Amino acid sequence: MINRGNFRQDLFIDRGAGEASEKARREAAGRYGWRVHAYGVMSNHFHLAIELTEPNLSVGMQWLQGTWARRINLFRKVTGRRFQDRFKALVVEPGSPFSGVCDYIHLNPVRAGVVEAERAVEYAWSSLPKWSRPDRPDWLDPRTALGERGGLPDDASGWRQYHEALALAAAKIARSPRPRKGEMSRGWCLGSTDFRAAMKTRMAEKGMDLETERFLGLEVDEARREREAVWEGRLVALAGKAKIRLDCLSARKSDPAKTLLAASMKQSTSMSNGWLADRLGMGPAASASQFVRRRMLSPAGADEVQQLVSIVKLRRLLAPVVSRSPGNSSPTSGATRSSLRPSPRTRRTRSTPPTCARSPGSRRSSTHRS
Asked: N or C terminus: which one in the chain shows less Cβ crowding within 10 Å?
């Protein structure tokens, strides 16, 4: 992905703007499950090479750019549009072409004359210096770029060899009398002729329907099912670590167990408030959003959420619902939401004893759900 400042104006002109960009990107990667392979921020534009774990590119980029713009505008006490357009996204063939994109992003400061060739690995607003940090985030994944350099390992030796190779490439760029610009930012697809032909066929088959439904404000059924399968899988994982039984949730809309799961989902996925409220039985979508907000305003509540999210490591949860067999009982199988969400609270009887224990932090006992 690439985007520029409106009228090509400088956006990231000071340390505060750069740090705000780093923070927003970190939050977006965690929230939307992105695997970030490389990124680079220049004075008036940014590059981002990511791999999706669920179909959420548009909503994720909207959140990333909108969040950064709102924070900067609020801090500087200004209003107005920051970016020139929505964003430009290119489909890249896995393997060598994708690794080339990562190299291009890391060498961009050299092309622009911002840093000298031998100091390319020291450019602060790039993913490159973060690779070797002991606190490197889980969402930053250098293995593709390293692997395509002769299978370099993701360790100190591999990082050093990659830096050396990149320094040679940077020196070559610096010696060029007229460095090329934008060769990785043109078109819509980067890769071999066969890959481009295959992608063009897929776009011809699905592109028109996708664009039409996007224009109408709707989601394609297949994409919606896939996203909900990802959300369900994430919810099951979070509930398992928190020792919360999803089939035994309290009927209380603001139950602490529900707000813990809801806030954790909001921090680590792109799911909608409507799906969340429906799945956890939290009433209207606006109510679910308010319950989450109240929990996150509490330091203790926010800490509990962050601990749970950090325990459940980012992983690939995308599994197309259409590929599941009818008998599959997996949490991400083709079961509908109506069969998974809690039913209204039932009265206890002597002939049907309750089978669920009290939810963590709940003030009232939960009863069996059908």
From this structure: C
